[in-house]
Amino acid sequence: MVAVDPKTVERWISADRLPHRSHRIRASEILRKSDGFLWPATHSDRASTSSTQAELVHVYPSRSAIEPPTWLQLVAQAKERIDVLAYAASFLHDSIPEFMTRLAERSRQGVQVRLLFGDPNGQAVDVRGQEEGIGELMAARCKLTWVYVTPLLAAHPIEARRHNTTLYASLFRFDDTLLANGHTYGSSASQSPVLHLCRIPGGRLFTHYLDSFERVWASSAPS
Description:
By secondary structure, the protein is α+β, with helices and mostly antiparallel strands.
């Protein structure tokens, strides 16, 4: 817990008092919200800004610049959670044949795996296909991804949902490491930059993207 007097917490709420940074960080961990979300005034806090900047480990010029062994290493190193949010992420089964198998192995070993892929019949997938200039091929890619994913759901403790959401970034989370692959109009995700983030107490980037994943998860239908 935060380990402060209840009256202190009351002052945080009723008197709009700003908690000490260590208390803010602990509270944000417990509530699973960034301290900037809980206390907007901290957006200008130098320590928080420094922590946020430190979360950025590397910028890949494109997703295709990430070598297959890197993806497999991230899967192997995850101990608690693996989350994937994309439309199709067909590169995972096209370019990294072992990825789905390794994912299944990690789920059997106790890692919580959640997969969010686009609903092939959804409007969001159709719009994204038009924006990328590939039309119905986007829906076809989503269908193929579900062909690979569906058998895993019956044999392994993997959760998966179909989303019909406009995505501004594909997200790949491995414990406290997150790859955020931004989407740009008229270009495929594979051609767009990827932010390699590492969660740091007090930082906001990792939590910002993770909150997005949770919102899409909550609004999507189980497969």
